[in-house]
Every structure is written in C-alpha cells, then in structure tokens.
Amino acid sequence: MLAASEFGFKHRFWIIGAIFFVAFLSYNLDPQNAGAAVTEWIARLCGSTATTTDYHLTFAIAALFAVAAALVRTSATAYLNPEVMMDSQVQTSRLVADGPYRYVRNPLYFGNILLAAGFGLMASRIGFFILVVGMIVFCYRLILREEAGIAASQGDSYRAYCAAVPRLLPALRPKLPPAGSKPNWADGLLGEVFMWVLAASVIAFAVTLNQKVYFVVLAFSFLFYAVCLAIISRRRKSHGAGTEGNAAEGPAKRAG
Predict the structure, then answer these.
(1) Which of 209, 242, 249 lies closest to 110 in space, CA to CA?
(2) What is the 3-state secondary structure (H, E, C) of 166-215?
(3) Alpha carbon 160 to chain centroid distance?
(4) Band of the pLDDT at 81, cuts 50, 70, 90?
(5) pLDDT tens digits, 114-149
(6) What's the whole-model pTM score?
(7) Comparing C-alpha atoms, which of 232, 238, 139, 218 is closest to residue 188?
C-alpha cells in the first residue's frame, strides 16, 4: 500500500470528513440504515420482530464505539499535546512511548477507526462499508508516511519500538514498561472536544431515536471544533509551535 502524499497528510482532517460525507451521501443509493438493518436481521434470526428496545440497544453499541474512540484519542493526545496532534507536518523530533503508546503505535488512528465503526451504524448499509473501509485504508496510508519519517529520524530506537509494539491493533497488555511521562488531561480534552461531541450525537440518537436531535448535537461538534482549533492555533503561535494543521496522529512524535 502506498503511503499518503504530503497533500493527503496536510489535509487529512478534510479528507476524513469527505469519507464521512460520501458514506452518508450513499443514502441516495441505499435508504436502509445500517444499524436498523442489523437490528432487524438479528430479530429475524431469533424468529421475532425488532422492537424499539432492540433499536435502542443497537445504537447504544454504536455510541459505545464512539465513546471508546474519544477515550482512546483523549488519552493519546494527553501524552502528546494538541498543537502536535493538529500539526500539518509530520513531526519526528521525539519518541512518545508511554500511556496508550505502550499498547499500540498509533492510538489516534485506532480511535478514528473505532469512530468509523460507531458512525457506520448511523449510515446506510453501503455507507457503513465506505466509512469503515475508507477510514482503515486512509489511516493506514497516513501511518506509512509518518512511520517512514520517524524511522529516518529516530533510527534504531524507533525500530526497537516498532518491534515491540503493534502498529494498529492494540495489544491486551503493555509491551513496554512505563516511561514516567505525565499526561496533561486538560490538553487532551481540549484537543479532542470534537470527538466527544461527535460521540454525544450518537448517544443522543441512541436515547431518543430522533434524527433531528442527532443532527443538532452533531452540528455543535463543528462549533466546538472551531473554538478549540482557534485556541490551539493561538497557543501554537505564542509558543512558536509551527504551522497550522488539522487532525493528526503519530506513534511517536512531535515535539511541537
């Protein structure tokens, strides 16, 4: 698989947004909601008809995926910093091998895939496939680009880290001892407010099964993202952290 281009990495937030857009646009081709289709399929297997409780349960599972994505990404960002997470350039000046990075080299991208799985149940059946497969493929290409840059910069230390810690599927147990880094949870939350409000939109739908409520909460996620992006951009300028970017990842990076 080819690594992402410089353009793809720099504009990854918008490309990921485009994957979501195309996935939900697929309702024009397939009007059946994926979560509802799964619920009704399971009910048929059980020889019954899907109930309202069954639908609530299915979308509660979707919400759990979204919450798990927000938790994973918040933890990862707390060990980096929001400025690094949103940088438009691959940063290779330091190796982060603590917190969730002891279990998986790319926890931020793993969080993206969890989010795609949760939101996939909100899309059509075709949309679910587009969202999950599209997210996995694009994130993997981003990982290949980042890891090549880090390996060139960090050399043997990074290769040893790669040999110990899986790339994208987390290990059940930490593969490295703690390095003593202290997470900054306030910064982690600042960098991932967008993800938490996205998760809140799925929770709202799981509770109400009302699309209007879902889309209202979803709209607020972009408002929160804009506010947080402005705060992070101002901090980056005041700290001389580098150029402005979008949503990022990195197993091991970025000294801001």
Answers:
(1) 249
(2) CCCCCCCCCCCCCCCCCCCHHHHHHHHHHHHHHHHHHHHHHHHCCHHHHH
(3) 26
(4) low
(5) 999 999 999 999 999 999 999 999 999 999 998 888
(6) 0.84
(7) 232
